[in-house]
């Protein structure tokens, strides 16, 4: 079973070491002067500790680099760290950092800089939306200039791949001192690229870091061109104005696949797309209402007719490719009559209007999917009002505390960046991640669920951990903090001339070492 094979990477016994892989500098391939990438949204920040969005984390990876890199098949490779060791009790990780590395401003990368990153990410005074992912860290100590010792509060089975997350990517200490929190717009890292220009709403431009410690990138300049209209991005790809189209229109994927000048990749993603239902405010406080909304929506029709099979319906609370995924016995198959019965049982007020929110350009056909959900709810007599927002404004609304939030029913996606269900089940539904501390914007709060997820984090036996995650999945599936919509496929289209593009199921792509045919 694929998920079990993945877990072998995660569950590491005493003194397992991951060695340095593929970073002996040598002459690079033929140079590509510029690669133009069309994306649908602008960045809200390029501070790796502040990210909420995979695409922006992808950009940060290019600027800051990672301690470790998780390959598309889930293996770990050394980057800024070369290897690690873990104690027999699973509570202490010794991290060996790469020697001779400098940030792009010339500041040495060492244990002090790496510790500063962890300290900042764990500092409750800082806004770190994904802090839950490293909340098991108790302390980070410097052993010597190139060795860290990380002590955990409890043994956490997937901690090794956690070290590949962007949240652990170091920032130059000199840049932090110089810019303070403005590092979000003036990032300085040790990665293969340097931010050259950021024109809000238009483009983000990176140039090759000529002093990068690893193999010199083949692409000299990367321009992320912000093009909100999907059809425009596709047209620009076909005419050669851009080389890569990030998330094209689902309705046009078949035509792009048939185009001899275009390559389309679409691996099943870790990302689930859902309609969050506020569990503590508004009409969706009632569990019966939340269940009714799930029965009211035809998820299969959305995947087939709106998304043109670039997604599959959710049949459990996390993506099938994650360790800890379980298909739920009870499925919320399309049943509008049952939805009406549940609303009647809940004494639902059909005179009130349900407020719906959606971004546009962040996910595959996000606005169209929201409009479809709106139509399904209206078909069972629910009055709705749908508003659309640009991504930075939408993100700002997601992190407001309960007494300030306007969220009632809202479209969102969640893409775990390690192949383990913890990042989905804990990262969205544990009460500790409710805004403003985290991104659990449905404000789900269930003490019994919290106990299960806490126990899953401490359990080291894979079989026992699977059982705990199954119980947690069944509980949250029944409580319905979401309308369980679909699991996306990560669709990216690019010029057929490009060879060697790295595309992952965690919704990242790396053009660092591509070649370009003439």
Task: Describe the structure using short key phrases.
single chain; 518 residues; alpha+beta; D-Maltodextrin-Binding Protein, domain 2; Dipeptide-binding Protein, domain 3; 2 domains; 7-stranded mixed β-sheet; 6-stranded mixed β-sheet; 15 helices; globular; disordered N terminus
Beta-strand residue fraction:
15-25%
Provide the spatial order of strands within the biggest beta sheet. 8-9-10-1-11-19-12
How many structural domains does the protein architecture include? Answer: 2
Structural class: alpha+beta
Number of strands: 23
Number of contiguous helices: 15
CATH topology grouping of the largest domain: D-Maltodextrin-Binding Protein, domain 2
Mean pLDDT across residues? 92
**CATH superfamily membership of the largest domain, which one?**
Periplasmic binding protein-like II
Proper CATH architecture of the largest domain = 3-Layer(aba) Sandwich
Outline the fold blueprint.
Blueprint: H1 2-10, E1 35-39, H2 54-64, E2 68-70, E3 76-78, E4 81-86, E5 92-97, H3 111-122, E6 137-144, E7 147-152, H4 159-162, H5 173-179, E8 193-199, E9 203-208, E10 221-226, H6 230-238, E11 244-246, H7 253-258, E12 262-265, E13 268-277, H8 287-296, H9 299-306, E14 311-313, H10 336-345, E15 353-359, H11 366-379, E16 383-389, H12 391-398, E17 409-414, H13 422-429, H14 447-458, H15 462-479, E18 482-489, E19 492-495, E20 498-499, E21 502-503, E22 509-510, E23 515-516
Parallel strand pairs: 1-10, 1-11, 15-16, 15-17
Antiparallel strand pairs: 2-3, 4-5, 5-7, 6-7, 8-9, 9-10, 11-19, 12-19, 13-17, 13-18, 14-18, 20-23, 21-22
Helix pairs in contact: 8-10, 13-14, 14-15
């Amino acid at each position: 079973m694929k998920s079990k094979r993945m877990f072998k990477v995660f569950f590491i016994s005493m003194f397992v070491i991951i060695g340095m892989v593929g970073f002996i500098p040598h002459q690079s391939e033929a140079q590509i002067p510029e690669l133009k990438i069309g994306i649908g949204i602008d960045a809200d920040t390029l501070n790796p500790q502040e990210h909420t969005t995979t695409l922006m984390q992808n950009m940060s990876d290019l600027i800051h680099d990672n301690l470790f890199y998780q390959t598309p098949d889930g293996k770990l490779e050394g980057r800024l760290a070369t290897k690690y060791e873990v104690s027999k009790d699973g509570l202490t990780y010794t991290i060996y950092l790469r020697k001779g590395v400098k940030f792009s401003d010339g500041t040495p990368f060492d244990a002090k800089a790496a510790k500063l990153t962890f300290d900042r990410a764990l500092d409750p005074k800082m806004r770190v939306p994904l802090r839950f992912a490293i909340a098991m860290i108790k302390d980070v100590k410097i052993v010597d200039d190139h060795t860290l010792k990380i002590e955990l509060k409890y043994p956490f089975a997937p901690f090794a791949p956690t070290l590949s997350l962007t949240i652990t990517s170091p920032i130059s200490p000199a840049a932090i001192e110089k810019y303070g929190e403005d590092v979000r717009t003036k990032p300085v890292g040790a990665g293969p690229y340097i931010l050259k220009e950021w024109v809000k709403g238009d483009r983000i431009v990176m140039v090759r870091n000529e002093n990068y410690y690893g193999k010199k990138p083949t692409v000299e300049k990367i321009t992320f061109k912000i093009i909100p209209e999907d059809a425009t991005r596709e047209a620009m790809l076909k005419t050669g104005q851009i080389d890569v189209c990030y998330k094209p229109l689902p309705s046009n994927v078949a035509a792009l696949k048939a185009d001899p000048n275009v390559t389309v990749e679409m691996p099943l993603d870790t990302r689930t797309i859902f309609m969050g239902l506020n569990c503590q405010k508004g009409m969706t406080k009632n569990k019966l209402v939340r269940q009714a909304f799930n029965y009211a929506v035809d998820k299969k029709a959305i995947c087939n007719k709106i998304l043109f099979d670039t997604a599959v319906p959710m049949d459990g609370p996390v993506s099938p490719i994650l360790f800890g995924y379980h298909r739920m016995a009870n499925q919320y198959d399309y049943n509008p009559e049952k939805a009406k019965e549940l609303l009647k049982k809940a004494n639902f007020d059909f005179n009130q209007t349900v407020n719906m929110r959606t971004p546009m350009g962040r996910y595959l056909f996000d606005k169209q999917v929201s409009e479809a959900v709106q139509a399904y709810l209206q078909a069972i007599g629910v009055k709705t009002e749908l508003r659309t927002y640009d991504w930075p404004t939408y993100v700002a609304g997601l992190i407001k505390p309960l007494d300030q939030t306007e969220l009632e029913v809202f479209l969102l996606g969640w893409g775990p960046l390690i192949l383990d269900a913890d990042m989905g089940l804990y990262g969205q539904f544990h009460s500790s991640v409710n805004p403003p501390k985290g991104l659990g914007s449905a404000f789900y709060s269930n003490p019994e669920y919290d106990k299960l997820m806490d126990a899953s984090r401490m359990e080291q036996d894979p079989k026992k951990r699977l059982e705990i995650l199954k119980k947690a999945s069944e509980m949250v599936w029944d409580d319905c903090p979401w309308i369980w919509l679909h699991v996306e496929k990560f669709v990216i289209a690019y010029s057929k001339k490009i060879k060697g593009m790295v595309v992952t199921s965690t919704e990242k792509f790396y053009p660092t070492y591509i070649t370009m045919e003439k």
